């Protein structure tokens, strides 16, 4: 097996800021964010693309950062939970008990925020389909689904579902 030991310096655009980091070719975006840039809100779960705990946004789309190499993200806009500005969605998770231990929550929020950008008025099926890529071992998903649904109802009509 060939081992790649060389390192390179990259400038990545993360949460609207340019960040310079030295990586190996094999470093994932997940490990780079957490271990080299201190952005530990993005969680390490399976590292196989199954759990969604590591979800971030790249150019506004939800991406599992364990499946992306840091070197692939040059010239792209990366958003992590630390840069997520959707306070309505975050408050809705609190209000609807959309988390317990919180391990899945940053990934859920990043995924749900992308959903609401792509589908500002999603159907129940669209909410379910988006959230299928993120596992939660605590909540049973009902509170999470309600949190996402309430956040877009509030956007449409501040007086409804409050
Ligand atoms: S840690 Fe990336 S999908 Fe599980
Ligand atoms: S709140 Fe614990 S895994 Fe989802």
Oligomer: single chain
Approximate helicity band: 25-40%
Q: How many E-type strands? A: 5
Total number of domains: 2
For the biggest sheet, the summary is: 5 strands, mixed
CATH class of the largest domain: Alpha Beta
What does this structure look like?
The chain is an alpha+beta fold. It has 2 domains: 8-82, Ubiquitin-like (UB roll), CATH 3.10.20.30; 84-156, Orthogonal Bundle (DNA polymerase, domain 1). It is 33% helix and 15% strand. The protein is built from 5 helices and 5 strands. The chain has helices at 29-36, 87-95, 105-118, 124-131, 142-156; strands at residues 8-14, 17-23, 55-58, 61-64, 77-79. A 5-stranded mixed sheet has the order 2-1-5-3-4, with helices on both faces. Helix 2 (87-95) crosses helix 5 (142-156) and helix 3 (105-118) packs across helix 4 (124-131). It is elongated, with a radius of gyration of 17 Å. It starts with 7 loop residues before the first strand and ends in a 6-residue tail after the last helix.
Compact overview of the structure:
With 162 residues, this protein is α+β, with helices and mostly antiparallel strands. The protein contains 5 helices and 5 strands; from the N terminus they run E-E-H-E-E-E-H-H-H-H.
Topology:
Elements: E1 8-14, E2 17-23, H1 29-36, E3 55-58, E4 61-64, E5 77-79, H2 87-95, H3 105-118, H4 124-131, H5 142-156
Parallel strand pairs: 1-5
Antiparallel strand pairs: 1-2, 3-4, 3-5
Helix pairs in contact: 2-5, 3-4
The structure holds FE2/S2 (inorganic) cluster (2 copies).
């Amino acid at each position: 097996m060939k081992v790649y030991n060389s390192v390179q310096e990259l400038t990545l655009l993360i949460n609207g800021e340019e960040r310079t980091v030295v990586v190996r070719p094999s470093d994932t975006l997940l490990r780079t964010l957490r271990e080299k840039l201190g952005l530990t809100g993005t969680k390490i779960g399976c590292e196989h693309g199954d759990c969604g705990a590591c979800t971030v946004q790249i150019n506004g789309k939800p991406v599992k950062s364990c499946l992306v190499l840091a070197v692939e993200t040059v010239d792209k806009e990366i958003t992590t939970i630390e840069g997520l500005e959707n306070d309505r969605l975050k408050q809705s998770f609190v209000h609807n008990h959309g988390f317990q231990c919180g391990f899945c929550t940053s990934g859920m929020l990043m995924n749900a925020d992308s959903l609401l950008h792509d589908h500002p008025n999603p159907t129940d099926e669209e909410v379910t389909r988006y959230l299928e890529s993120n596992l939660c071992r605590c909540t049973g998903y009902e509170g999470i689904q309600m949190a996402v649904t309430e956040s877009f109802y509030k956007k449409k009509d501040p007086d409804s579902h409050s």
